Amino acid sequence: QVQLVESGGALVAPGGSLRLSCAASGSALSEFILTWYRQAPGKEREWVAVIGRTGVYKNYAESVKGRFTISRDNDKHYGYLDLVSLQPEDTAAYYCNAKKGALQYWGQGTQVTVSS
Questions:
Q1: C-beta separation of 16 from 27 below 8 A
Q2: Partners of 67 in the beta sheet?
């Protein structure tokens, strides 16, 4: 069992930056692949970025490539998503997902709103 708690969402002006955090507890984070998703109002949840267990493998959705950076600290049991050059279309609830085989866990989400 893994509990995930996201934080760091906020209202930010276009061009701004944020760091989202995903705090994990209940099991060794290093066993899980971490993925960030987002869901905008009226839209389906979409994949944003993924990071492998050791942090070496990373991949990004085309819409965020070059602007978002995913990372993790297994010793501190945290995952991160750094967002720069934010645009209004990045407005969404952002969710952290931890997956190991058939098991997966979700956090409750953190809201990012990009508006002037």
A1: no
A2: none
**Pick from 23, 25, 42: which is nearest to 93 by CA?**
42
Tens digit of pLDDT for each residue in 71-115? 999 999 999 999 999 999 999 999 999 999 999 999 999 999 999
Q: CA nearest 35: which of 25, 20, 15, 13?
A: 20
CA 22 to chain centre: 7
Per-residue pLDDT tens digits for 23-68: 998 878 899 999 999 999 999 999 999 999 999 999 999 999 999 9
Nearest Cα neighbor of 23 from 90, 88, 108, 92 is 108
Token pair recorded at residue 70: 């995913």
Q: Are strands 110-114 and 11-12 parallel, antiparallel or unpaired?
A: parallel
**Amino acid identity for residue 72 in this structure:** R
Given a contact cutoff of 8 angstroms between Cβ atoms, the answer to whether 109 and 4 are in contact is no
